[in-house]
């Protein structure tokens, strides 16, 4: 059965790779985002990739404007005739030095990545539970697994998001809500442009492959690419004294 998928963040990076993969296998996609022209371009691109022609629709949802959340969920449901899968890849990033030097952007990042993403998820949770279930797949990060010097603020937003998603999974899985928390490592996208590449850097397509499999299986936590599960297992067990000394 093809999925009816809503994607916030499908205009760029990992979200775009994921949207293309889902459209190419025949899933129906509704895009959410903040730039209408970009959304229209991406919708046309996805439509051209579908095995059988089917319209790819879109509507506005801006993570900085919570008043857009309820209308966006409702528009997506109307356009798709109901949806069973909701993916959030949208998010903000800046380096730790950039954030330490810019309190206004820090507030935006904390708000978008944590408070507003969770608020949006609450709208989606209510919608999916009212139709007796579905999948909520949200992009956190390996940066949320441990407090680390280069990603103190960004990592804190992802740690909070990860905890929220785990709580949802514990409480609502039995009622049919499949919560998927995606934790990518370093991925080559606009978000990481210009940053030095660590080992195991991946392309968006690699992450998309892992995430599609997780959506199909309902895997609650997924490291992408999977090697990051091992890397983070080691990092999570490093003693605090060692973490103070190392630079990552
Ligand atoms: N890339 C990595 O190495 C990496 C690693 C770990 C986790 N992640 C996480 O994975 C997710 C996807 O990352 P990516 O690398 O694909 O990022 P990206 O290429 O920068 O794409 C980010 C997407 O988020 C959208 N977005 C940003 N602010 C928004 C807002 N206020 N409202 C609605 N949409 C907004 C962007 O839309 P516009 O086109 O309108 O800007 C874009 O579509 C993020 O949550 C990120 O934190 C990424």
Name the features.
single chain, 248 residues, alpha/beta, Rossmann fold, 7-stranded parallel sheet, 9 helices, 50% helix, binds NADP nicotinamide-adenine-dinucleotide phosphate
Number of domains: 1
Q: Averaged pLDDT, please?
A: 98
- In CATH's first tier, which class applies? Alpha Beta
Uncertain runs are none
Oligomer, anyone?
single chain
- Helix content percent band: 40-55%
User: What CATH architecture would you give?
Assistant: 3-Layer(aba) Sandwich
Largest sheet, in brief, is: 7 strands, parallel
Give the overall shape.
globular
- Report, as a whole number of angstroms, the end-to-end distance: 43 Å
Count the beta strands: 7
CATH topology label: Rossmann fold
Query: Count of helices?
Result: 9
SS content category: alpha/beta
Could you state the order of secondary-structure elements as H and E? Answer: EHEHEHEHHEHEHEHH
So, the CATH homologous superfamily?
NAD(P)-binding Rossmann-like Domain
What is the percentage of strand-forming residues?
Answer: 5-15%
Strand arrangement across the biggest beta sheet: 3-2-1-4-5-6-7
What does the model show?
50% of the residues lie in helices and 15% in strands. It has 248 residues and is of the alpha/beta class. The protein has one domain (4-245): 3-Layer(aba) Sandwich (Rossmann fold). Helix 1 (13-24) packs parallel to helix 2, helix 1 packs across helix 7 (204-217) and helix 5 (103-130) packs parallel to helix 6. The radius of gyration is 18 Å and the shape is globular. The chain starts with a strand and ends with a helix. The mean pLDDT is 98. The protein binds NADP nicotinamide-adenine-dinucleotide phosphate. NADP nicotinamide-adenine-dinucleotide phosphate is lined by residues 9, 11-15, 33-35, 38, 62-64, 89-93, 112, 139, 141, 184, 186-187, 189-192.
